[in-house]
Amino acid sequence: MPAYLLFQLYGPLQSYGGVSPGELRSSQGHPSKSAVLGLLAGALGIERDQERRLADLSQGYWLAVRQDVPGTPLLDYHTAQTRPGKRGRFASRGHELSQGLKPGESPTTILSTRQYLQDALFTACLRGVEGKAPYSLDALAQALERPVFAPYLGRKSCPPGLPFAARVVEAGNLAGAFAGYGAPDAAVRRLLGGNRVESVRYFWEDPEEPGRGQHVTRRDELLSRGRWQYRDRKEWEGNLEPVSQEGS
Fold first, then answer.
1. What is residue 230's three-state secondary structure?
2. 198: left (phi over 0), alpha (psi -120 to 50) or beta
3. Cα 171 to Cα 173: distance, rounded to the nearest angstrom
4. Are 208 and 64 in contact (CB under 8 A)?
């Protein structure tokens, strides 16, 4: 019977950008694959310049997401200081301003509008691609319990507001895995202001999983972290098949 790793993603703010050039940095309505696998990479202690390890992680797992609470969009008028002209690559904004400015050069201000999701709650689910998964699901769950680098939900300014509660579940299919993990408990719903968890939505990429929905393309699978390049990925959005007897 297949094994799945499930964990919850909640924070006061989350942000999952797509293709958003220019001054508007929007957020998609549910976590992107690059964000979820990037979260796991940080938990495992994988550095950003370790391209091969990042690629293996991205290509080694199928991702599914259950949208438990969609949250409320928030727009932030954002200002930041940066060096004039070509910015280059720096570890942080502070490093850029302290090391990237030439003698006598003053920083400039850039403006943007950034979108976030307030009080959204998602359940992520991973299944290893046969012959490609570089880590066991148990190893990933342990990394989420004791992450090497501080985790965040899409942006560094978006720390998680609850433990990930990672758990490996065996089930006959994806619907059975979500059912085995369960819905958010009463304590989580109280944290969200008493919001009822209903009319959940599912997003999944594994073509072997039974379900009915529309097929969409997202550019959120990592191609090169160093060059900030991503490739297209096919994803289904809709309803999963009911849990079969052997998967319940």
1. strand
2. beta
3. 5
4. no
**CB contact set of 3 (below 8 Å; sequence gap of 6+):** 127, 128, 137, 168, 169, 170
In this prediction the pTM is 0.84
Return the CATH fold of 3-73+117-247: Alpha-Beta Plaits (3.30.70)
* Tokens encoding 126: 């991973």
Backbone angles phi, psi at 167, to 5 degrees: -150, 140
Beta bridge partners of residue 73, listed in sequence order? 117
Helix (H, G, I), strand (E, B) or coil at 108: strand
For 63-98, write each residue's pLDDT tens digit.
999 999 888 899 888 787 777 765 566 666 777 777
Pick left, alpha or beta for residue 33 (phi over 0 → left; psi -120 to 50 → alpha; otherwise beta). alpha
